[in-house]
Structures are given as structure tokens and as C-alpha cells.
Amino acid sequence: RGRGASSVGALAGEATKRGRSLLQTLREGLESGASFLTTANRKKFAQFVELITTLQGEAAVVVESLAASDE
Fold first, then answer.
1. Residues with Cβ within 8 Å of residue 2, at least 6 apart in sequence
2. Is 63 exposed, middle or buried (0-12, 13-18, 19+ CB in 10 A)?
3. What is the rounded distance in angstroms from the CA atom of residue 26 to the CA atom of residue 71?
4. What are 20-29's contacts with CB under 8 Å, separation 24+?
5. Residue 47: pLDDT band by 50, 70, 90 thresholds?
6. Residues 6+ apart with CB under 8 A from 22
7. Residues of the chain above pLDDT 70, percent
């Protein structure tokens, strides 16, 4: 909730304008307090970024473990 079509559309528009991925734009926007993020959806987008970051870290550990087992 709080990440509806208009919120995602604003994010996509900003990402296109910046020439960046949605995730990179979102991270930068959260750090800078960008105007395309409303107060209402900032916390929910921050939770989403935290989830993705955690999953990326866990995936890296799995890949590293698999690579080590191939040696």
C-alpha cells in the first residue's frame, strides 16, 4: 500500500529523466529528500529499498558460496 500507479509513475518519470534505474533513482531520492517522493510514501519506499538491499546481499552470499564449491 502507498505505492500505487501514481507513485510508481512519478518514480518512473524521474528515473527516465535521470537516465537511471528505478532502484537507483529511488535510493538517490530517499537520500536527498527528492520532491517526487511524497511524505506519505517515503517510508514505504524506504522499506522496499531495504528489502531489495537485503535480498541482494543474500543472493551475493549464495553466488559466492556456489562459486567456492565449484573450485
1. 40, 41, 43, 44
2. exposed
3. 38
4. 23/49, 23/52
5. very high
6. 11, 12, 15
7. 96
What band does 2 get if pLDDT is binned at 50, 70 and 90? low
Burial 21-54 (b: 16+ CB within 10 A, else e): eeeebbbebbeeebebbeeebeeebeebeeeeee
Task: Collapse the DSSP code of 70 into the 3-class scheme (helix H, G, I; strand E, B; otherwise coil) and give the result.
Answer: helix
Question: Residue 11's pLDDT band (boundaries 50, 70, 90)?
Answer: very high
